[in-house]
């Protein structure tokens, strides 16, 4: 994975305080005492953390909100801790509907390393306030069951624990909740207590859907140490139509380029609705409010240019995948829209483009374009395909075809196995040649 260029990142100096900017960007849905928290953030440097559980081999867009919040706090001079949950990942926080399938210790250990590498790319480990990475398995593995129950468990009240939103939902469900997942909030509270004792950590961030777990930590530190610590819950990002952000038919948008290609990642942001783009710029980029206001104006006055979406897609793709991958994604996007050359794309980028399009796989050899238009879904029938070809409405690799008897040969294949068929201006499909 590429290395994120942190030197270009800055908080917006037009705000009177960090707290004001965080709220303007829509990053605070819920928090502990807001006035006290603002005073804490505006005072001397503090240590804060966010935890990431290895329940998959990669982080996704929901985690990116937390990574950027960690970075914004670091830019303000505070000391970040990135926690990867080697122990909590063995359990997993309770899901909305059913018990998680527990992963093996070996799998979780492997995912811990992968997530650690991802988190590290978004934080600076140099300067006056370098980031620190920790693994909660380092302290939980040393606890005996008796010590855990005597020293930690005694601070939790079952009545309070079952009132947590996710626990209450699961208790009222048909499946219920196991003691394992019920205990997750105790383990997360233990993380905060340990980081408070070891590093004087006084703030935890996380998604607002984790608020019950976040407050388990603040409550535990108060009971065990008599200290006041804080938590910030960021809003769950949703689209203007109310749908969940970052999901398409149940598929997450991953930060790992092997799971979501830089091209697909770029296209995801480029397709942001006009009604959502300003909010996305606030949360996911370091653009100033003056820059975002100008992009919002362009969206309202010249929506056809999609300038805000282009800036959003370029900024975030560069942040996550680097400038070279972004350049390739932009070139591929131009070719898809008929304004660039598919021949200039490298094989991996072309494969990523093909994966996002309707496609048909064919055997090596010569193929009638009429058949391919039907096979890829670009034409409903052979007669419709012939009519398209007769009218000059089809192209291969952005090169117009003529005649109803047009064929696709080996000479038309890019990198020996891809061809991009187009009907009209907007309908595009891929043909891939199998071995």
From TrEMBL:
GO cellular component, one term: cytosol
Binding site for ATP: 247
Pfam families per UniProt: SYY_C-terminal, tRNA-synt_1b
Entry binding sites for L-tyrosine: 49, 184, 188
Residue numbers covered by motif 'KMSKS' region: 244-248
One term of GO molecular function: protein homodimerization activity
Catalytic activity: tRNA(Tyr) + L-tyrosine + ATP = L-tyrosyl-tRNA(Tyr) + AMP + diphosphate + H(+)
Gene Ontology biological process terms from the UniProt entry: tyrosyl-tRNA aminoacylation
Cell location: Cytoplasm
E.C. no: 6.1.1.1
InterPro entries given in the database record: aa-tRNA-synth_Ic, Rossmann-like_a/b/a_fold, S4_RNA-bd_sf, SYY-like_C, Tyr-tRNA-ligase, Tyr-tRNA-ligase_bac-type, Tyr-tRNA-ligase_bac_1
Motif position, 'HIGH' region: 54-63
Residue ranges constituting the Tyrosine--tRNA ligase SYY-like C-terminal domain according to the UniProt record: 352-428
UniProt KW keywords: Aminoacyl-tRNA synthetase, ATP-binding, Cytoplasm, Ligase, Nucleotide-binding, Protein biosynthesis, RNA-binding
Principal location: cytoplasm
Subunit structure of this chain's protein: Homodimer.
Annotated function: Catalyzes the attachment of tyrosine to tRNA(Tyr) in a two-step reaction: tyrosine is first activated by ATP to form Tyr-AMP and then transferred to the acceptor end of tRNA(Tyr).
Family classification: Belongs to the class-I aminoacyl-tRNA synthetase family. TyrS type 1 subfamily.
PANTHER family named among the record's database cross-references: TYROSINE--TRNA LIGASE, MITOCHONDRIAL, TYROSYL-TRNA SYNTHETASE
Name of this protein: Tyrosine--tRNA ligase
Species this protein is from: Kocuria marina subsp. indica
């Amino acid at each position: 994975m590429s290395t994120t260029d942190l030197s270009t990142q800055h908080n917006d100096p037009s705000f009177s305080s960090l707290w004001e900017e965080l709220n303007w960007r829509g990053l605070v849905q819920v928090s502990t005492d807001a006035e006290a928290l603002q005073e804490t953030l505006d005072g001397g440097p503090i240590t804060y953390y966010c935890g990431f559980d290895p329940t998959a081999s990669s982080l996704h867009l929901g985690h990116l909100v937390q990574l950027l919040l960690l970075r914004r706090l670091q830019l303000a001079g505070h000391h970040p801790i990135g926690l990867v949950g080697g122990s909590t990942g063995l359990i997993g926080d309770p899901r909305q509907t059913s018990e998680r399938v527990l992963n093996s210790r070996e799998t979780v250990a492997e995912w811990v390393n992968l997530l650690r590498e991802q988190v590290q790319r978004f934080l600076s480990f140099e300067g006056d306030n370098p980031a620190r990475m920790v693994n909660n398995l380092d302290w939980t593995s040393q606890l005996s069951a008796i010590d855990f129950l005597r020293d930690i468990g005694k601070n939790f009240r079952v009545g309070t624990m079952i009132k947590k939103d996710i626990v209450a939902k699961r208790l009222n469900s048909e499946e219920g909740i196991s003691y394992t997942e019920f205990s997750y909030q105790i383990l997360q509270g233990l993380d905060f207590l340990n980081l408070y004792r070891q590093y004087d950590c006084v703030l935890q961030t996380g998604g607002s859907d984790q608020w019950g777990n976040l407050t388990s930590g603040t409550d535990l530190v108060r009971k065990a140490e008599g200290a006041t610590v804080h938590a910030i819950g960021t809003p769950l990002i949703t689209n203007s139509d109310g749908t969940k952000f970052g999901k398409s038919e149940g598929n997450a948008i991953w930060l790992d380029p092997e799971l979501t290609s830089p091209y697909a990642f770029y296209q995801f942001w480029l397709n942001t609705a006009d009604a959502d783009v300003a909010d996305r710029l606030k949360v996911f980029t370091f653009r100033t409010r003056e820059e975002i206001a100008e992009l919002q104006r362009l969206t309202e006055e010249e929506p056809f240019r999609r300038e805000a979406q282009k800036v959003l897609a370029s900024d975030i793709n560069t942040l996550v995948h680097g400038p070279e991958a972004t350049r390739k994604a932009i070139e591929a996007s131009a070719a898809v829209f008929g304004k660039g050359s598919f021949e200039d794309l490298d094989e991996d980028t072309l494969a990523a483009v093909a994966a996002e399009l309707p496609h048909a796989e064919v055997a090596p050899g010569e193929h009638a374009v009429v058949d391919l238009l039907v096979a890829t879904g670009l034409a409903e029938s052979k007669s419709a395909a012939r009519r398209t070809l007769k009218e000059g409405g089809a192209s291969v690799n952005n090169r117009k075809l003529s005649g109803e008897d047009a064929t696709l040969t080996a000479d038309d294949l890019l990198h020996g196995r891809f061809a991009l068929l187009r009907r009209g201006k907007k309908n595009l499909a891929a043909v891939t040649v199998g071995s």
